[in-house]
Batch of 3 targets.
Target 1
Amino acid sequence: MKKLMIALIASAAVAGTAQAQTMAGRGYVGASAVTAKNTTVDANKADGKLFAGYHFDERVGVEVGATNHHKTDFANGAVRGDVEGYGAYVAAKYTMPVNEQVSAYGKLGISHSSRELRTNVGNFKQSDNSGYAGVGVEYKLNQTTALVAEYERYGKTKDFGARANVWSAGLKYGF
């Protein structure tokens, strides 16, 4: 009887610890391939994005990320040059589980974006601090790894370079 009581107490302690671990916050990191239309060269370009976040619980979290719009050369008649830029954000994230593997989420926060245009007739730079919003879907491959796909808006409309609207698909790793 004494052994049975010890076994029950130990089982309850292990179950309580396991439940606390699933309810506790979890961090994550990820990388995505992104695409945004580059208005200077009138084409979609593939770039990269890195992000990290923390889930306070199953639904509420915070995320930071940065997207690099790499240097793109162009020539338009006698005007030649290149354009590049980046966008960075910090946002609150709300996740709604659809089933065991699929979740939908929305993000709302602030962003900083910068675009630089260098040509043989002059250089131009445009930066802004503005709102940030995103919506996406996540598909869990296992307990720590998930595929993500999302649409994001980095602030105001840009006059040159990559647009503020970004589509991405990538991989997220939780820890």
Note: The chain has a mean pLDDT of 86.
Target 2
Amino acid sequence: MTTKTTKKTTGQSSAVPAVDSTAGTLLSSKVPAAAVKPAATVVRPNVRYSDKDLNFFKANIERSREEALEELRMLKERLDDLTSAESNEDSSIYSMHMAEQGSEAQEKEKTYAQIQRIQDYLRKLDEALQRIADKSYGICRMCGILIARERLLAVPITTLSASYKIHQTCPADGVDRIVAKGASALKP
């Protein structure tokens, strides 16, 4: 077998095994890491939540979306307040102490990061709404099984079953169970 590698700017090479996603067979021992695409959703016939369930999940996602939009609005107001306070102090007679300037810069940076996080969450919520419209919401993209209802309510943007997320394997019986890794070791 041949090994394909890519040379990064650091001079190190990176390669990963190549697998035929349709047959699950090894194509070659290594291909460039950039050439490996994320796995497509595994589709099992007749596996989906009912329209009634999807409407329930849609209402939950829309509620989460409204809460996120409100949080985003408050963060933007906070950022505006920090920016306007900075410009007011620039025009004052007394300059601000360097430590205070550093604290304000850190607060602005933290607020920018929170805004970015909320915007990413809103994008993922919109993607979840699109999956509801496609009737593919609640199906694990790796196993093709229904994701546990409790998980979808707790993490409405998820695309992985709890079984796969925790154990990195699909359950043999095709049922998603929310059980912690090594939970049997915790039993008395």
Note: The chain has two domains: 6-35, 51-167.
Target 3
Amino acid sequence: MPLAPKAAAPENNLTRIEVVGAILHRPVSLKPRPQQMPFLDLLSPDRVHTNFKATGKGDLLQRLSVLLAADTSESGLILDALGAREALGSTGLGRGVAIPHGRIEGLSKARAAFVRLASPLEFDAIDGQPVDLVAALAVPAQFNDQHLKLLGELAEIFSDAEMTNALREAADGSVLHAKLAEFAGTRLRDSAWTD
């Protein structure tokens, strides 16, 4: 069996990149570029709130369903999906963070909301701690892979202690959104997607 050839010189790599570009009918860059996270692509500034008030977990899910819905008919479907997911097990990740989410049959497009609660709520989180940072997702039922990617992105955000501290200290919703955008800009991503 012949030995593998040595790594090609940089000029040979450029030739290969140019060939790939020609096949794809577009230029291809060697430099990775920062992309927004898919979560941020779905998070409109009007769905980002600080001092969000809720009296309990059920009330929070109901208020999030209204925030995520395009109209009143969707809010009931979203609430049902969020509730059904919570019935399987709490989406409280611990360290004051929850990611209520659901896939909804007939939903036309994916949506996200992010709230910092006025007062932490009991959420049956895995560490037993109350929740104050909540990222909510409503996605069309057929968005299996995208749904998992979104949850992965959120896990990355919330696993960064510096980031969660910054979210807790943000003065208002626009600063919260800006902090999420800043975090996204520091990470290298695949191409952003929207539905």
Note: The first strand starts at residue 48 and ends at 52.
